[in-house]
Amino acid sequence: MKKLSLVLMSLIAISFMITSCGGGSQPAATEQKGPNALPADVVAMMPKGEAIYKAKCIVCHQATAVGIENVFPPLANADYLLTDKVRAVAQTLNGSKIEMIVNGKKYTQEMVPQVDTKEDAVAVINYVLNNFGNKAGYVTLAEVQGVEIKPRTAPPAAK
Ligand code: HEC
Which of 78, 39, 37, 41 is nearest to 57 (CA)? Predict the structure, then answer.
């Protein structure tokens, strides 16, 4: 049994080595290599994430994602963001109104919900995790499956 799993492990390792050498096929232009390589589906959602960031987040978190000290927290090299990617997706979806310490500074302002779908939230968070100097991996839709989309504040009733 031990021997069999050893053989299996080395077979898997060898096949990984072969596939990571490309096996002769040309990788797509956007495909990344190396230890920080992102899966193709994550690379594919980057333009959407960028568009959302530029349309929505930039006003507060700024063009370089450094935020505004003690008002809007940074998303670039932010310890708070990098410790919990699922929480970041949930905050983007549902907003956040808590006291938080980001890179040693306190933030207490409210962020209202920014996007309506998990797809959009995942796309923009993955964009943030891989831009502004961040090289922080990615989050998947499957990982945020348990995140509840809270009901939005109801629009004023028509009279
Ligand atoms: C109107 C200003 C505003 C906009 C627009 C905004 N945010 Fe925020 N954001 C805040 C504030 C204020 C906080 C702190 C909230 C708190 O203290 O609970 C915050 C916190 C966060 C956090 C957690 C803190 C951190 O440093 O990781 C994330 C992640 C985040 N925002 C992502 C986004 C994304 C992504 C967008 C665009 C889709 C966005 N925000 C748009 C104001 C904003």
Answer: 78
d(CA 159, CA 26): 62
Q: What is the pLDDT of residues 25-42, one digit of tens each?
A: 444 445 556 666 899 999
pLDDT above 90 as % of the chain: 72
User: Contact, 116 vs 94, CB < 8 A?
Assistant: no
Q: Which of 82, 111, 139, 147 to mutate to test the pocket of ligand 1 (most atoms within 8 A of CB)?
A: 111
**Of 116, 123, 118, 149, nearest in space to 138 by CA:** 123
Among protein residues, the one with the nearest Cα to ligand 1's atom 6 is 57
What pLDDT digit, counting tens, does each position of 48-107 carry?
999 999 999 999 999 999 999 999 999 999 999 999 999 999 999 999 999 999 999 999
How far, in Å, CA of 119 to CA of 48, rounded?
Answer: 10
Beta carbons within 10 angstroms of residue 155's beta carbon:
6
Cα dist. 37→33, 48, 83, 89, 108 in Å?
5, 19, 20, 21, 35
